[in-house]
Amino acid sequence: MSNDLQKIISMLSDTIMDKIAASSVVGQMAELKEARVRTKDIQPPQDVVPNPEQLGPFLKEGVKLTESQNQFTKFISDREGIGVAAWKPGSGKTLGAIAAYMNLRKEGRAGKAIVLVPASLRVNFAEGGVAKFTTGTYGIIGTRQESKAIPEMDIERMGDKDFYIVSHDLFRANPDYYLEKTGADTIIMDEMQRIKDPQSVLNDVIEKVGQKVKNFIGATATPAMNKPFEAIELRNAISQPGERLSEEKFTKKFIQRAPEDFWNRVQGWFGGELKGEITGFKKKEELAKLLTKSFHFAAPSSANTPSKELEIVETPMTASQEANYHAILKKKLTTRERRVLEEGKLYPDREMVKILNKAMAIRQLSNNAKWVEGAPDVAAAAQTPKILRMMNDVEEHLSSRPDAKIIIASNFVGSGAKMIEALLKQKGISYGTYYGKGQKGVTSETRQKAIKDYRAGKVKIMIMTGAGAEGLDLPNTTMHMTMDPHYNPERITQQEARGIRRGGQKHLPPSQRRVIVRRYISVPSKGFSIDKSIYTIAAKKKALVDQLKEIGLRAQQRRAESDPSYSRALSLFARPTKPKIEKLKKPEVLKPQKPVKPTKLVKPMKTVKPQGGEMRKSAMEKFSGNGGYLNARGSFDEHEVRLIGGNGTSNLISEPAMDASQVLPHNKTQSRLPGKWSKRRKSSLTGKEKARMAFTPKTEGALGPNENKEGPVRVGY
After folding, report:
1. Is CATH 3.40.50.10810 the classification given to domain 68-255+282-300+562-567?
2. Are residues 635 and 17 in contact, defined by beta-carbon separation less than 8 angstroms?
3. I need a surface site. Which of 160, 486, 616, 694 has the fewest CB within 10 A?
């Protein structure tokens, strides 16, 4: 019982006791009955149980959660609304994050949600996530220019929504404003790997606002892109300050390296020592506990997803192309740097980034035989073996199957995507493009139109740069062509996953659903290939990141094995059906009973002057014969002058003018006079004693024949 309720009851009790002293017995009982009614109406505050029918939103009919999505929903609930889905591309992270939020809302632990996504993916999340799977409402928050052109994107005029979708950049500029305007207490962040840099503004913003909201649900296919500690950076961003781990401590505690060789130490004398190659992890059990506090890892599932058939296509360089290649290689890189690339060893990330930036011209030359530094020649595409081979494969694939749809990806615009585009135009083959907004003529509208045309089959080829590596859903793709490698392995994986989507190629039997993935490599006749070296380094980095994921995944699987309910399918998201209304039964007609003859009134007993001991003995004998207990505690504010029997009946004490002190002795001096009190004794009584004396009934039946059927009444019940 709360303190406020106790105070109210105490006030009622004091008020009633003051009135009892000056009122009749009938008036006293009426006051007590009213007090009982009033105090029953005053209930202690209780937890509000949310009504699923009122809360919403709900999953649309027919939408079913996968095992991983069910697990993630429980994972977020168990971890106080904070966690990250670290799943491979195309495995349903968007629906998993939405379902986890909806579950928190059903539990009464979440209100509105603000969704943070890259600007180019706002529409994708709205239409391909919220509208596709749920009955919820959403609003896409636009920039000033967008809000002027489209009033529905103005947050001031948007109105009440379940999901408010805003870009990373817009939210980063003024996070407190958007949290206040939306009233959101939950953040859903897609493509969360974008905060991996602890020095970035977005990372700093997430660390701060994460302390202001109740729930944070992240989603990423790449918890670590270049090095394992990037996963810990994501964890640090959503953890309390005291739980964060520095890179130095993480590396020292968990990273395992190969011993340094003699050549490596000699090289260090001249150009700075390169540490031994990273080979894996140590203290894996402890690392697993650290990871699974924040990340949920999902096992790769091939269900309803086309298979990936990887092919490596090597194309020889022309004589002039190879001559330029070796000349630039020698000019741009030192002997040591060339050796690092040739060996393809996994050295510290900063060192490798410096080397690859210096080798940028060599990478572009591998795509364009007539490349000139600073001025790529698009017309030379027809003379480059790699580009010619790719065009032959495009034409062959388009002619071999009527449902052919092809994605062509490059990390370069002028020395990559534009060259393919020029040859397609020359051959009269229609296509769509998805480039970064910095390119001339590229807007959100042109990019969205290209996506819709490709999905609808109006164009069968989509050319994209790195801008299309994240978030795009291009199902029914039958071939993916990668023109050049990327040092970041997850970037390669993500880009190739744009067309390998869950539910893709439904028009084909499951055994025939496959996406051919071809990676093209320019190979010189002598020396090493820069394309091949980058793929080798990326493969080693991917193996290390996969090791990290595997450690977390195994811990996740052990949890699922030990707790069967962890993967149990959830049904609470389905829209509740209307409750069945049972037909009311016809009321039973009660037969009239015969009237009861009125009882004869018993004449009041004459007052007898018994001794005190006999009085108590008489009362107790009368009570004990009824098999009950005496409901009197010796305190004035809780006294009753009823004897409560074990059979539930209540009898007033029949002896005349007996006070409560004679029923149960207390620490006050008892009067031996059962009748009138002497003047001397009355004058020494306190106010509460007088009230207590006035409370004593005179005879059995003084309250009438029905009063003793109400049961015991207590002040302060």
Report:
1. yes
2. no
3. 160
